[in-house]
Amino acid sequence: SLKMASDSPDSLMTLCTDYCLRNLEGTLCYLLDNETLRLHPDVFLPSEICDKLVNEYVELVKTDSIFEPHESFFTLFSDPRSTRLARIHLREQIVQDQDLEAIRKQDLVELYLTNCEKLTAKSLQTLVSFSHTLISLSLFGCCNIFYEEENPGGCEDDCLVNPTRQVLVKDFTFEGFSRLRFLNLGRLIEGVNVETLLRPLASLAALDLSGIQLNDVGFLTQWKDSLVSLVLYNMDLSEEHIQVIAQLRKLRHLDISRDHLSSYYKFKLTRRVLNLFVENLVNLTSLDISGHTMLENCTIPSMEEKMGQTSIEPAKSSIAPFRGLKRPLQFLGLFETSLCRLTHIPAYKVSGDKNEEQVLNAIEAYTEHRPEITSRAINLLFDIARIERCSQLLRALQLVITALKCHKDDKNIQVTGSAALFYLTNSEYRMEQSVKLRRQVIQVVLNGMESYQEVTVQRNCCLTLCNFSIPEELEFQYRRVNELLLNILNQSRQDESIQRIAVHLCNALVCQVDNDHKEAVGKMGFVMTMLKLIQKKLADKTCDQVMEFSWSALWNITDETPDNCEMFLNYSGMKLFLECLKEFPEKQELHRNMLGLLGNVAEVKELRPQLMTSQFISVFSNLLESKADGIEVSYNACGVLSHIMFDGPEAWGICEPHREEVVKRMWAAIQSWDINSRRNINYRSFEPILRLLPQGISPVSQHWATWALYNLVSVYPDKYCPLLIKEGGIPLLKDMIKMASARQETKEMAR
Description:
Layout: H1 2-7, H2 12-22, E1 29-32, E2 36-39, H3 47-63, E3 87-91, H4 97-102, E4 110-114, H5 121-128, E5 136-138, E6 147-150, H6 156-161, E7 165-168, E8 182-184, H7 194-198, E9 206-208, E10 229-231, H8 239-247, E11 253-255, H9 271-280, E12 286-288, H10 302-306, E13 329-333, E14 347-351, H11 356-366, H12 371-387, H13 393-406, H14 411-424, H15 435-451, H16 455-465, H17 478-489, H18 496-509, H19 515-523, H20 526-539, H21 545-558, H22 562-570, H23 573-583, H24 588-602, H25 614-623, H26 632-645, H27 659-672, H28 687-690, H29 699-715, H30 717-726, H31 729-737, H32 744-750
Parallel strand pairs: 3-4, 4-5, 5-8, 8-9, 9-10, 10-11, 11-12, 12-13, 13-14
Antiparallel strand pairs: 1-2, 6-7
Helix pairs in contact: 2-3, 8-9, 11-12, 12-14, 13-14, 13-15, 14-16, 15-16, 16-18, 17-18, 18-21, 20-21, 20-23, 21-24, 24-26, 25-26, 26-27, 26-29, 27-29, 29-30, 29-32, 31-32
Family: Belongs to the zyg-11 family.
Keywords: Acetylation, Leucine-rich repeat, Repeat, Ubl conjugation pathway
Subunit structure: Interacts with the ELOC-ELOB/Elongin BC complex. Part of an E3 ubiquitin ligase complex including ZER1, CUL2 and Elongin BC.
């Protein structure tokens, strides 16, 4: 079942292939002269492995931004004595003339070149070297493969005036390709004579001429005894075309569909044409007439049509001409036609826009070669996921992931696909998704964010990430996610909503993670980015979610991470703290976040001298009386001062305010707090608090620390009792009870 397929771990073959490709130098290859990859002389690999290496390599280059392509990768397969290739699929910009040239000695059976726009007529010549073995060939979308560069004059100076011109090659044919059976020439460049090109082929079984306009297709009848599959997508048909098709009696698959938005078509489908196909093409199992306008009504009268349960029996067909079928079709393409909404359609699989099943069939059928149709189908899926409920969730997710991977640079697909992913990954569907599938979603979302600076895509991708448990589910791509988000936040012009979501994600990513993660993110410029955002908001005099999240993120990233605390001070963080306090005296959340952060800074002994100014100490002392956010602001201000007091009277390098006066205010503040207060704070470690227990230099710091522990273990015993025991708090408290310098009420609390 689909669920099991998506859940099972990758095969050992897949894992090894992936590992070798990411570590070519350490596994199959060595570097010659520090630049060229060479295969180790004792490596011999069969085609099962080589094909997978090449096909996976193409996939990795296309979908994994961290993976570095190698100039000389294809040369590893130049010698059939050590590496054998048989079936390879190459795509897009990844492959160039010299890559095909490198593997010309291989006996290829199947070669798919899809949208390889960098290939020129040099590669046509290379194809000839595969002519004696090739059975399947696709040149779909290789729009320059029939062009060669003509160099006029040959003289140096002249060339500067006339750079190389592109000239169409007219004399290439498939002469000598004696075994070729399957050929895809989709989107072939105009001006190539298809008839001449194909004439030498003795027995074609499948031909795809998508997007090519041919007024005369009479030459197709030369394969009427062998042709089983014919695709004429987007060809404007005429009566002559129909008559030729009707003679191809061996056809099992016929596709005359079109994109109804692309251009004006004179041709309209009629009842007679469909009848002709049904009568003549008796082997037909698959027919695609998507996008066509029906000139006349082909449907059975509606009274009769609505009767009984839906049936795929030809005899009950709502589409009259299909009543003549011997058995139901395996596939019937009716996307963007009125026929797909009828009740009885004689086919096991129908592509259309009537319901989820038809829409998923459309995405599945058209993704690879028809992104223009696929994006509209995904848009329909988006509506289904948003308004109704998806019943085939895993299939839907996998199809959208495949489409996004396949068309990384297609804006429409990236926009509709990323929007659909948001609805398909939200919480109501959560239970049905495996870790592996959710990781695939994250990968493809990050790809989208990387390749598209477009606002809608960025917003959809950020929103989709919010459907995941952060940081846990993003841990495996931790650096990459953070880099992408910081990138978004560092752009000079920003969309408000994206900024808000990105800051929220950044904050969640640095909450509850290990210190080495925080240090790494700090080095990426996280602290600087947040301070810049705060600076901008201050200038606009706005205290919104972005402002609060930015301070919260700084609070999280400085937790037990001295390097990040130091960065905060070095980038004028204290100046911004004072300005925010002054500009937004009523904002309680903000005050709590800012003081939580300063608590982290105060825990670092080397940085405390920088907090030792009259201005800062006065501000902290005044905040002791704050009632903002319950006790949180007062508690954090007291925490900051407790660490400063712990350095002793000799570290008090200011005249105003007096140390004793501040100590008095601290005692008063602690005594005013309710010991059973529920808290807005989260400790991963008690170490910074426990540090204040075994000392006699500042009894008030000792009292603050004891109060903090007492409150946390009594209000949240399940969480904090084990932590206190684990970090060795019990013996510290016992020792403190014996200390002469400790105040009586502190000892009581400790006991």
